[in-house]
Amino acid sequence: MVQYILKRIFYGILVLFGVVTVIFLLFNVLPGDPARMMLGQRADIASVEAINHDLGLDQPLHKQYFGFLNDLSPISIHHKSNTASFWFLDPDKYSYTNLFTINDQMVVLKTPYLRRSYQTNRKVSDILAEAFPNTMILASVSILFAVVVGVFIGILIAIKNNKFIERLAMVFSVLGMSLPSFFVAIIFAWVFAYLLADLTGLNMFGSLKTVDDFGRGEYYDLKNLILPAITLGIRPLAIVVELTKSSLQDVLSQDYIRTAKAKGLSIAAIVRKHALKNAMNPVVTAVSGWFASLMAGAVFVEYVFDWKGVGVVIVEALEKYDFPVIMGAVLIISIMLVIINILVDIVYALLDPRVRYN
Length: 358
Hints:
With 358 residues, this protein is mainly alpha-helical. The protein folds into two domains: 74-111, no CATH class; 124-357, Orthogonal Bundle (MetI-like fold). It contains 16 helices and three strands. The protein has helices at residues 2-28, 34-39, 45-55, 61-72, 124-160, 163-178, 181-195, 197-200, 204-215, 223-252, 255-262, 267-279, 281-305, 310-319, 323-351, 354-357; strands at 75-79, 96-102, 105-110. It has a three-stranded antiparallel sheet with strand order 1-3-2. The N and C termini lie close together (12 Å).
């Protein structure tokens, strides 16, 4: 099992290396002058050159790439005292612990440095640290809603084996997968937070204010989660229902289930003790992928409901061509995707020992 986990971690590191490389190359071929974005109309040649030097944009592309990797790596190499060097260990940029020093070179253990925003000059890590918990809460509640409700409905359909209910579930699954999240978000916001605001108590303008307060950590109201969480959870809910139903129906047709029935066990006991665990493998796999995609797909839903998460940060950064913020957000989402996939591989191997042996 340890070898299996180490192998998955190694593959995850390779994936992250590829993502970092693609992100660097992609954003370095896009048009735009970061120095002039930061300085505005008052930009002069000396100031532009100083900003380009500080950002490392006056270096060859391969040096910029290795500098980018060095900034992201938890263990990195820097110059100790040469302030003019591209590799200078600037205490304003890095929070670090010195591991050892060789001449003027320092090997340090540090927090990954995601550069600074072109527009606000704030650290990207600080910007994302404020927004990421809100996105994490929204995605977690959405996937929890999808799993609990989806598994429950899937079990009912599989047990009842009613053709009408099964067709109804199929229609719901197709609709759930077909409707884009941003379209559902607009419809839900219009119907439940505008037309039916008096009935639901989810007044759109009031909830926007409280979400904004929640984003600053000043006020929290659970009702602000209802519409964005349901909107974001509809698509994975449709998948979970269909997978649970299909997988459980297949398991319930196995010989050992018939033996359990012959022993007089109730259908509830059979499902809970024998069938459900074996039917959960495809659901666990699907949920992992969906949870990671919700972290990225929340962009549209957050923007519609003005939920102060990574989605709103990304949209605002795109409008202002604030590339470091976008790069940092994509990296964080990619890291989350890799971590979730590793954890799910481990859970999958625990549910089905054949996986780790194969």
